[in-house]
Amino acid sequence: MFIDIHRDSQPKKVTTADIHQKRYAKLFFVVGKEHKNYEKNRKFVEELHHDLEKKYSGLSRGVVVKGEFDGDGVYNQDLTEHALLIEFGGVDNNLTELYNSAEALADDFLVNTTGESRRFNRFPKQLIETNHFQKRNYS
């Protein structure tokens, strides 16, 4: 499996969800259709989207399929049958929202691959408070 993680340029009102009294950075799945693995990747991502929506309704913004005129249409998804490009929230989402979404996605992967659900340990508070995880200005 190959996972390519991006952040969307949409504003926080588009990229944030309140689910089970927690805030999440919404996930948006992008599938390129200009390669031989397209159909398998699309099916895999659509199943993942539907599974996430069962447990975390509103977490996924859906699946978009892009061809060569919508971007490059490949997005490194030609490397394997299970390649994902996931937009994790947007530029305004905070670390807590991103971590909540990462845990939800990891839990869904675990259920789909092993049949078990498990709560993941949170990132240690001291890591979150260090400069390593602070919002950076790349302008």
TrEMBL record:
Pfam families attached to this UniProt entry: SpoIIP
Database matches in NCBIfam families: spore_II_P
Protein name: Stage II sporulation protein P
